Amino acid sequence: MSDGIYWIGAEVHTEDLFEGIWPIPEGVALNAYAIKGDKIAIIELVREWGGAALTFMKNLKSIDIDPKDVDYIILNHLEPDHTGFFYMFRSLAPNAKVVTTEKGAALVEGFYGITDNIKIVKTGDSIDLGKGKVLNFVEIPNVHWPETQVTYESNSGILFSSDAFGSYGIHKGSIFDDEQPEAIKPYWEEETLRYYANIVAKFSSSVLSAIEKLADVDIKMIAPAHGLIWRGNPKAIINKYIRYANYSKELQEPEITVVWGSMYGNTETMLNAILKGASEQEIPIHVHQVPNEDMSFILADVFKSAGLIIGCPTYEYGMFPPMRYVLEILNEKLTRFKKVAFFGSYGWSGGALKVFNELSEKMKWDIEEPLLFKGYPSKEELQKGEELGRIIAKKVKEIPSKIKNEEY
Ligand SMILES: Cc1cc2nc3c(=O)[nH]c(=O)nc-3n(C[C@H](O)[C@H](O)[C@H](O)COP(=O)(O)O)c2cc1C
Ligand SMILES: [Fe+2]
Ligand SMILES: [Fe+2]
Question: Which residues contact 61 (CB under 8 A, 6 or more apart)?
Fold first, then answer.
């Protein structure tokens, strides 16, 4: 990456879900780094996952680092995707001092039972590795956990940013942004947004504070713990993260996401009418059926879309259960300030709307008059559906897009 600074991470292909919830069909990179001054530091480790620990060890060997000679293990963030291999690696690197924040040290003890040979650092502290290499630490709490910090190497200008500025997806050929072919850029946009919506969205205000805190740092390269290494244009990923963080506020894209479920097709019939009305405005519409499609992908589309249309039937005096789950996650992940419509079929007395009202209470959504109908929708009801789709699409279309030309 730079003189004496190396990527020693692993590309993980696995059927496992990330954090036990989120599918990663494109895999995920666990980025780890080694810095050779007079002293040797390792920044982030890996998890024993799909062969990652072995790859990490082989990468160390390939740059002639014997674990016994490692002086520092910098743990910016203690989540086990980066530290799962720590317990074992420490026995291979007994001379290494573990460098982390005070809250990080408590997690080292909690997860790995280790309390000795730990150096606690805080914002403003630094470690001189010799040969001009100096590590500087800045705490960025709650991006992603409370103990999180970043490490800035001042000679190279590389910011080791932990989960911040990360992405799902493995590297397909090169770890660097400036070596990505044009055709792969939509892949990275999709995987970065989905990672943000799934993992980081809840902490959007902390993301913006962290970016502000780092404003005076002369960042020449951003090396996150997942995803691309931003060497050519580090500003691009900062701008992406600012854009994503603002999706939690009122600044979203002129797009609509429709999430629907239906047991016997009555709600689905209305869905088609709504889509007909909405599609007239020629804005992007993302349609997801539950429970067939995974929440990870639904969340990414809902998160960026200014328009949201939810359709589901009444089920046992309440809401179709998979939609209840969707709404609970949307609430947790701060999908706020959207133009929203709700529709669905019921058999006799209904009940889905009551649950919708309860679950959407904190969302700050601008909700149209709900469209509820008994059994199969009538011609008049279908016309109302078309109109409802049209209303949402017209409102959404007026919103300017935030996607700038973020070149990389
Ligand atoms: C398991 C089950 C539970 C239901 N519970 C209710 C209910 O509590 N109240 C009600 O009004 N309708 C209830 N219904 C009727 C459905 O809401 C109704 O059939 C509706 O038209 C289904 O819409 P769909 O075709 O989009 O699945 C229930 C239906 C099923 C299959
Ligand atoms: Fe994390
Ligand atoms: Fe992570």
Answer: none
